[in-house]
Design goal:
Keywords: FAD, Flavoprotein, Oxidoreductase. InterPro entries: FAD-bd_OxRdtase (IPR050260), FAD/NAD-bd_sf (IPR036188), FAD/NAD-binding_dom (IPR023753), FAD/NAD-linked_Rdtase_dimer_sf (IPR016156), Rubredoxin_C (IPR041575). The chain is an alpha/beta fold. The protein has three domains: 9-114 and 313-396, FAD/NAD(P)-binding domain, CATH 3.50.50.60; 117-201 and 214-309, FAD/NAD(P)-binding domain (3-Layer(bba) Sandwich); 407-489, FAD/NAD-linked reductase, C-terminal dimerisation domain (Enolase-like, domain 1, 2-Layer Sandwich). The chain has 13 helices and 26 strands. It has helices at residues 2-5, 19-31, 70-75, 133-143, 156-164, 186-196, 215-218, 221-224, 266-272, 315-318, 367-385, 459-468, 486-489; strands at 9-15, 37-41, 45-54, 60-68, 79-83, 86-90, 95-98, 103-111, 115-117, 127-129, 148-152, 168-173, 250-255, 260-265, 289-293, 298-301, 303-306, 310-312, 331-333, 344-346, 351-353, 400-405, 408-414, 426-432, 436-443, 446-453. The strands form seven sheets. Strands 1, 2, 5, 6, 7, 8 and 20 form a seven-stranded mixed sheet that branches. Helix 2 (19-31) packs parallel to helix 11. It is globular. The structure holds flavin-adenine dinucleotide (FAD). Flavin-adenine dinucleotide (FAD) binds at residues 15-21, 40-43, 47, 85-86, 112-115, 130-131, 156-157, 228-234, 236, 313, 316, 348-349, 365-368, 370, 403.
Length: 491
Amino acid sequence: MMAEKMNDTFQFAIIGGGIAGVSCAEMLSSLCPEVDILLVTASPLIKAIANYKKISKTLEEFDVEERPWMSMQQDCPNVKVIQTEVTSLVAEAHTMTVRDGQTYNYKQICICSGGLPKVIAKDHQYVLGIRDTQSVKEFQKHLHHARRILVIGNGGIATELVYEVQGCEVIWAIKDKSISSAFVDAGAAQFFLPKLNADKEEGNKPSKRHEYTTEDDILPEDLKEQTLGGALGPDWSENLKMTGQQEISHQVHVEYRVEVKVIYTAEEFVATEMTESTLPGFIQDKWPVYVELTNGQLYGCDFVVSATGVVPNTHPFTKNNQFSISADGGLLINEKMETSVVDVYAAGDVCSANWTHSPHWMQMRLWTQARQMGAYTAQCMVAKVRNEVVSLDFCFEMFAHVTKFFGFKVILLGKFNAQGLEGDHELLLRMTKGKEYIKVVLRNGTMQGAVLIGETELEETFENLILNQIDLTPFKDDLLDPNIDLEDFFD
Ligand code: FAD
């Protein structure tokens, strides 16, 4: 029986059914339709890309659908999908073992195991982390009875959450001096601020997602706790009802430059004999949990949401293998997506890109990059087998990301926050309150990056200006003049 278990050898194996893993499997399948490929995923739902649209040379848009893992085998018949968790990898022997003890041999493997949420006070009964479908369902369930929540974190997840929650007071505790600072600067944050407490326009939003049974419904009880679902896709918050118990739309208070000092249960709070901070317009009540912030403010709430980012999920793989790991905990990969361990590749949130980056690209753990890395890794894996040379994909030439914050379209290009420019730059700004916010980062007269909020229609022109590095010194004063058609100008 054991000998039979050891017999399966695959040319290509992939760990993870998130965007990176699925993109890698699909690309491998199309490049090598005759080769058997193995995809092992802990989650019963895989993340598939739908409605892919290339907006420009580097900008792309797509929806992320959750599909049952079996659907992968229908679309790509040479991909065998196994829904289980890889518990160990012995790269020297080119084997991996899954939860039930079955071992598979591979020739090349790609790790796409994503990230794990950095939840503060992880096991606290009143602290929830947001990461996958299951955790969002848990959040919605609790929110339904909530009058007030406290959200910690200042990235994309916290931003979307704070915007979407209605019928519940929100205290948003951030460690920076402006909101959403993982993506935008203080100026853009100011532009968004009026939206924080504005009533939301409710349209009949069409559901972009295909509805499938969620992980929560499929998983047996004993696996729910242990199984890690894929990170949610970009539209995770759009079609979800996030409504609390109160008859209010938005009621948000931001505490800037703070961290959580102590979390108290109701009993612990009483014992401290401290007094809760009050806020005009916010209810005063008894709460199940209290949070003391580093600025001395102390707020009660129904529960705390920890949205403080992710750490690469490397654990089962680092046990038996000597991977080079980056300072942020990711598996270091070279420009061929190879880790430091032979025949082991990595893509998506689990990896850290360790090649000399193009001046206008940087890694951010986002769904676009997960897709690009997954697909490009497949090309690298095949090129190695065929002894071919593969050059770094064009998508790594310039950072480009489209998203939506506070109902506005947001496009980030190149070094949009002057990352790495250390003061050696100037900024051009144009803002029309409630309509658009445009920021351009220039160095020595050339465009290094841009933030475009609203329907600016400048993305293609600015993308070209960043890629071409044209000297804009003579046009600097007119660059953001709304009366000049830049597209015509630079054609
Ligand atoms: P994941 O999607 O995390 O997939 C990892 C896969 O590996 C899963 O299928 C998991 O089950 C599997 N796995 C893990 N360990 C094992 C194991 N041992 N054995 C087998 N399988 C295993 N990005 C954006 O660009 N825009 C957004 O608006 C946005 N919003 C987000 C909102 C939330 C709440 C979160 C959590 C993330 C968001 N992101 C967003 C980030 C984006 O979702 C991730 O960057 C992207 O999904 C990463 O894809 P991945 O394939 O690398 O990892």
